Amino acid sequence: MTTWKCKEGGEQTMKKQKASTLEARKQLRMLPGHLVVGLWCLFTIGMLAWIVAASLSTSPEIMRGEALKFATGFHFENYINAWTANNISVFFVNSLLYASCTMVGSLAISAPAAYVLGRYVFKGNKLVRNGFITAMSLPQIMIILPLFSLATQASLTGSKFVLIFIYIGMQVPYTTTFLISFFSSLSSVYEEAAAIDGCPPMKTFWKIMLPLAQPGIVTVGIFNFMNIWNEYFLSLIFASSEKNMSVGPGLKSVLTAMQYTGDWGGLFAAVVIVFLPTLVLFLCLSKTIISGITAGGVKG
Questions:
Q1: CB neighbours (10 Å) of residue 146?
Q2: Burial class for 281, CB neighbours closer than 10 Å (0-12, 13-18, 19+)
Q3: Rounded Cα distance, 42 and 40, in Å
Q4: Which residue in 59, 38, 60, 62 sits closest to 50, CA to CA?
Q5: Taking the model in full, what pTM does it have?
Q6: Residues 167, 164: Cα–Cα separation, whole Å
Q7: How far apart are CA 173 and CA 165, in angstroms?
């Protein structure tokens, strides 16, 4: 008996040693990738730190390369000047309006469509799916002129409404495609139980399936918000005045004005103000984003 226990203990020790050896080899193979990612993270953090430091410095300190020294202290008035004098407040509110309306509007259209396409089999299902994928593959430059022509004929140019409408239309294919895979991964047990209780299909969707798809909806909603917040080209074309511009073209106009004012501290403060919402949103909801992305690949 003692000999048998010794043999069993020896086998377990050998298995643990093999497992640790395999894990060490795996980590060693991944070391180059970790180094590249680590260097990239350090570079990104360094650039962000310099931008924040520059936003709290004066223009002469920035030009001399002394932004990180804070020789004259912290200049928080740069943020006040950027918010008021450089019209960042107008661009910020416009982008918030565009991103929020697009996020809500695209989800209101795409969620029911994705549920039907992901859960029901009917003629034309595959055709509609392929249509959404094709729409995602079209470059913006190909549809700008037709859209601008239609907006001009309808006398909608120079209004916020036309940008919101275009943004929603451009986000619907991506949002629907993302949610189709997510709704397809949900178990059919919930629908069967609801059908037994006499719940109609639409009520099943709103009361049962939509709450179950919350991680995917939150994830794609965040992606849509960040995409529209960082959008530049469409806002530049369709926003005919500064009162309708989003933060992308707005920052470009502020940069152009820097040639005459030289307020570089205010420019970097504007960059920080514009960058901060998406950073906070991602940091606060990063776990939800990761869980939403991975959940769509697991069949229920």
A1: 9
A2: middle
A3: 5
A4: 62
A5: 0.79
A6: 5
A7: 14
